[in-house]
Design a protein that fits this description.
alpha+beta
Length: 165
């Protein structure tokens, strides 16, 4: 069997080049999105937006109120800047969501490296709801190289739907 042949019963994307192939209707996924975070105690979100040339989907400074409508206020312990694919990328393939984030972050890679050198923590966190009892999110080698080049870790928050038998 050729090394790039799909396995029996799987719709497997073949990543032999940097050209991505997606399965936007991924049958094993009910819902997914990805969020890039940058945090630091003294983070100024405006400085991050200016440095990266991107407006965040969420932002806060250390000490900002985290839950303004709650009876007991909770405050952010550190500053944060986030860019989320949810509501923007319409796909059940997490690879498309991750690529969307990386495509926006790579032009500011020098600024991102300066922020990391100054102690900022960076990561991409992926939300994934599994539609069946098997399968799960996957990344391509090219995406893993892009993440490594940017010094960004990736994590997954995985949930399962269906009967609780």
């Amino acid at each position: 069997m050729p090394t790039n042949a799909p396995r029996s019963g799987c719709r497997q994307a073949i990543w032999t080049t940097a050209t991505p192939m997606y399965d936007d209707e991924c049958a094993t996924c009910a819902e997914t999105f990805a969020t890039f975070h940058i945090t630091h105690d003294d983070l100024d979100p405006d400085t991050v937006s200016l440095a990266l040339g991107i407006e965040p989907t969420e932002r806060h400074r250390q000490g900002d109120v985290r839950n303004p409508r709650a009876r007991r206020l909770v405050y952010w312990r550190s500053g944060g800047w986030s860019l989320r694919s949810s509501g923007i990328v319409e796909s059940r393939d997490i690879r498309r969501h991750v690529d969307w984030l990386l495509d926006r972050l790579e032009p500011g890679s020098a600024a991102l490296q300066r922020l990391q050198a100054a102690g900022c923590r960076t990561d991409i966190f992926c939300y994934w709801v599994c539609a069946v009892e098997h399968g799960g999110p996957r990344l391509s080698p090219h995406q893993m190289a892009r993440l490594a080049d940017l010094g960004i870790e990736i994590g997954f928050d995985i949930y399962f739907t269906g009967d609780d038998e």
